[in-house]
Amino acid sequence: MKSFTILIVDDSAAMRSLLVSTLETLGNLSIVQAPNGFEALRMLPREQVDLVLTDINMPDINGLELLSFIRNNPIYKDVPVVVISTEGSRKDIEKGLSLGANEYLVKPFQPEQLLEIVKRFL
Amino acid sequence: MSSSSVPSSDAARDFLAEAEEIVEELSTQLADLADMAEKGAWEPDLLNAIFRGAHSLKGLAGMFGFGMIAEVAHHAENLLDWLRMGKVSLSTAVLELLFSSAELLTTLLRACVDGTLEQHQAAATAHAAAITAYLNPVTPVAEAPLLEQLGLSESLMGALTEYEEHRLKENCSKGRHIYVVHASFELTTFDQGLSQVTDILKGCGEVISTLPSVGENLETHIDFDLLVGSDRDEHAFAELLKDLDVTILVAGGTTAANQPETAIPGTEAAKPAETVAAVLEKTAIPVALPVSEAVPASPEEPLTAKSMSRTVRVDIGKLDELMNIVGELVLAHSSISSIANRMRAEGFSRMAIDLGKAAKGLERRLTDLQKGVMDIRMIPVGQLYEKMSRIVRKISREQGKKIELKMYGAETELDKLIVEDIADPLMHIIRNAIDHGIESPERRLAAGKDERGTVRLSSFQKGNHVVIEVEDDGGGIDIQKIKQKALSKGLVQDINGMTDREALDLIFLPGFSTADKITDVSGRGVGMDVVRNNIAAVSGMVDIDTRLGQGSRFTIVLPITLAIIKALIIFCAGRTYAIPITSVVESIILEPSDIKTVEGKEVINLREQTLALLRLERLFKIDRIGINPGDQYVVIVGSAEKRLGIVVDDLLGQQDIVIKPLGAAFKSLRGISGAADLGDQRTILVMDAGGIIAETMRGGGA
After folding, report:
1. Domains in chain A: how many in total?
2. In the 8-state DSSP scheme, what is residue B660?
3. Taking CA atoms, which of A117, B294, B350, B374 is between 20 and 30 Å from B456?
4. How far is B36 from chain A (nearest CA, A)?
């Protein structure tokens, strides 16, 4: 049986490893990471992604653009997306929700908040 | 401040490494921004990148529980956000505030390492207050142009971040034409195609947003809509992109696809308020204007799934470990070789030869491995240059001096650890060059020089070492003044008969400072003695050259790596030592009859020059009784101008050694920089030639 695959998109390596180490506590997960929107676009066709966690503020292709692509693409449109950003980028988070983000997380968040959200999609 | 629990040390290390990178990048970009602002115009992209840096840092610091850093980054981010959104303008005061934010962040990150973060609370609070004082919009934000009339698709508009929307408005109100460039690329190679298009677009305007979209062949292709603001009218714009397989949409335009000639180039975008009605009347739907026939994507492009980011970040400690293992392998190899030799001597010829061959093969591979591991440690000194150029800009701003920093040889590679350790001494030398060397613009003009002073920073590899030179075209060092100063400070008793070179060396004495008044720049309690000690700590040497009225040159000679260095192994008074080959000029046989005594010191004449001799047994206070030296050698160490002959009993040859520090107990030991394993279970001391020369010149040693 294929394990549940989560794609983490964040340009911060430290942030990615923090997310990974938190998610790993859930066990049987396959986690793939992309350091930017480009790499995420590449990974989508390669990996069978079941959930996307994306930062919003990234160079070149940002989280909203990635989200919009996912929602408009018949192949990926049903993949749940969680957008992550800081307080102060509320407007961007709202935009994310109107673009079809399933959930959002405001940095800084506690590990439990992340786990609680991710568990809903497992 | 910090609400969450203390993060694990691994996570903290991750955070610090990345945070440091962000702040460094931030400072460089700020300096660039300051440069651009000085010239009157700055790139919105640059400002946004700076904003993003502060934003990322805030998020990171918050996540990792460094509340104070998150707070400071947050305030800087706020100011940057107002700037990029056009709510405050980029004044000198705002720039200073941003520079001080970057500096404070650097300080705080360092304090994280030292565990002294709490001491900076007051500074952080003051910083927050200083920034908050700026965040009061005096003038209400100008009424933004309506974006609806551009007729951009909902999916495009919906994915714009707040900032991108702002940029779109900015472009409209500047009267720029807004285009949507649509391109389709093969899924496997889209990044190359996209960056080609983006580069061209950036050359003629601003890429406001890059939206991936879904095209006809969604299994194999990925499409992009690039939202662009440009001064070029649509014909010029189309001309520019004519070789690319793209479609251009003129936003808010009235152009019809079949009559492009009649189009009035995008004046609608220029004066949106007046044309809203007209546009709405006609059509709100943008009309596609195909610029070129579709050219099939080059089929020979190889499929690639490789990641765009091709670097890994590795703790240098891991490389040290690897290097140690390589060193041990080398030792293991030499025991295998010697077994092979012994076997051959005892007559197991066939097997001995095979073993010998295998050992040779192993040796070759080991050499490759060693080289490979060393290569990983190498980084271009250009990374240092960036830091230095920031410092130069900062100091010249503070001092009102005009300075041009010329940099050469940024690609020269050095061991990462050396680059780190050399940063502070190099910074100090450059500070000195600006503070004491380069004159004020008025004085320069009076002296018939260009009012803009020049500091030349150059690096190059010379044999087994790397040379870094800092040269200025300032006033030079006044040698008489130095002598007087040293005398008045009681650093020397007698200045009569002192050569210029010896006088220049006084600068490196502890407690020496030539500045008449201590300025903010150089007078930070760090003397040139510290500079020299820090350079010696990485087995390097520093030398000065100066011409009064014309400038000075500081030359730093460094080994390429500390991990493995070549050393001359010498034998003296029953003991074996290593001298780093970087410090060895030459070795000669000592003719006892050549030795003369000048002022109680032994010297010889070498090619018309007097060379002072040093006897190691005296320096290290070894008892030589019962050991007959027989023929002796002189190992000449130092640089062209400052030499010393070390008398030794025998030269045992050259060898690669790994220098290991001696530990705190031996820190005060003069003339020794560490220890090394020789491979035959023997550990020997490694001599610090620079330190020995300094010691001898000061009248210590021989």
Report:
1. 1
2. B
3. B374
4. 21
**Interval A36-40 mean pLDDT:** 88
Residues 576 through 595 of chain B touching chain A, CB cutoff 8 Å = none
Distance CA B674, CA B565 (A): 12
Among A35, A36, A69, the residue with its CB nearest the CB of B212 is: A69
d(CA B520, CA B516): 13
Contacts of B64 in chain A (CB under 8 A): 14, 18
Residue contact B14–A17, C-beta within 8 A: yes
What is the value of ipTM here, to two decimals?
Answer: 0.87
Token pair 């990471």 is found at A33
Give the pLDDT of residue B149: 75
State pLDDT tens for residues B373-429.
888 888 888 888 888 888 888 788 778 888 888 888 888 888 888 888 898 899 889
Cβ B408 vs Cβ B459: under 8 Å: yes
Strand partners, B587: B635
In tens, the pLDDT along A61-113 reads 889 999 999 998 888 989 999 999 887 677 888 888 888 999 999 988 999 99
Question: Can you tell me the distance from the alpha carbon of B394 to that of B285, in angstroms, rounded to the nearest whole number?
Answer: 51
**Is there a cis peptide before residue B145, judged by omega within 30 degrees of 0?**
no
Q: With bands split at pLDDT 50, 70 and 90, how would you rate the model's confidence at A29?
A: confident
CA distances from B216 to A40, B41, B409 (A): 20, 41, 50
Cβ <8 Å between A68 and B155? yes
B662 burial (CB, 10 Å; 0-12 / 13-18 / 19+) is middle
Residue in chain B lying closest to A64 (CA): B159
Look at A14 and B58 and tell me if their CB atoms are within 8 Å: no
User: In terms of pLDDT, which residue wins out, B408 or A1?
Assistant: B408
**Contact status of B25 with chain A (Cβ, < 8 Å):** no
Q: Please state the length of chain B.
A: 702
Residue B1, SS3 per DSSP: coil
Residues (pLDDT < 70) of chain B are 1-9, 137-145, 253-311, 348, 464, 513-526, 562-564, 625-629, 639-641, 663-664, 667-668, 679-681, 698-702
The residue in chain A having the minimum alpha-carbon distance to the alpha carbon of residue B155 is A68
- Of the candidates B564, B660, B537, B563, the one whose C-alpha atom is nearest the C-alpha of residue B320 is B563
> Quick check: B214 and A21 CB within 8 A?
no
Q: pLDDT digits over B457-477, tens only?
A: 999 987 767 899 999 998 888
Question: If you count them, how many residues does chain A have?
Answer: 122
**Residue A25: pLDDT above 50?**
yes
Which structural domain range is residue A97 located in? 4-119
Nearest CA in chain B to A37: B212
Residues 6+ apart with CB under 8 A from B262: none
Helix B9-39 and helix B92-114, axial crossing angle in degrees, nearest 10: 160
Pick from B56, B63, B211: which is nearest to A11 by CB?
B56
Task: Select the residue of A13, A74, A89 nearest B313 (Cβ to Cβ).
Answer: A13
Q: What is the CATH number of the domain that holds A12?
A: 3.40.50.2300
The half-sphere exposure of A82 on its side-chain side, counting CA atoms within 13 A, is 25
